[in-house]
Amino acid sequence: MPHVTVKMYPGCTQEQKDKLAQEITNTIMTIAQKPEAAISIAIEEVKEAEWMTKVYDTEIRPNMEKLYKKPGY
After folding, report:
1. Per residue in 10-32, is it b (16+ CB within 10 Å) or e — as a string?
2. Which of 4, 10, 27, 53 has its CA 20 to 30 A from that of 46?
3. Domain range holding 18?
4. Residue 71: inside a domain
């Protein structure tokens, strides 16, 4: 624990994904005081045309009260 899933449009390189996962890991280690071995990160690519139905309508909008950072769209 914790496990973080990042959903994003396709287009980032493997190097960018690796760096994103490492930066998220570093932040969790620093702020939440969790060891690196306890952290897992997943990156799921979602096509832009499918974002609203697959992510926004099912995960974001129904859970607005739980979001610490809300989208601006």
Report:
1. eeeeeeeeeeebeebbeebeeee
2. 27
3. 3-66
4. no
> Could you tell me how many residues make up the chain?
73
Residue-wise pLDDT tens digits, 6-63: 999 999 999 999 999 999 999 999 999 999 999 999 999 999 999 999 999 999 999 9
Torsion of CA 16, 21, 24, 29, to 10 degrees: -140
Decide if 35 is catalytic.
no
Helices (H), 1-73: 14-31, 51
**Residues 33/22, Cβ–Cβ less than 8 Å:** no
Catalytic residue among 2, 10, 35, 62: 2
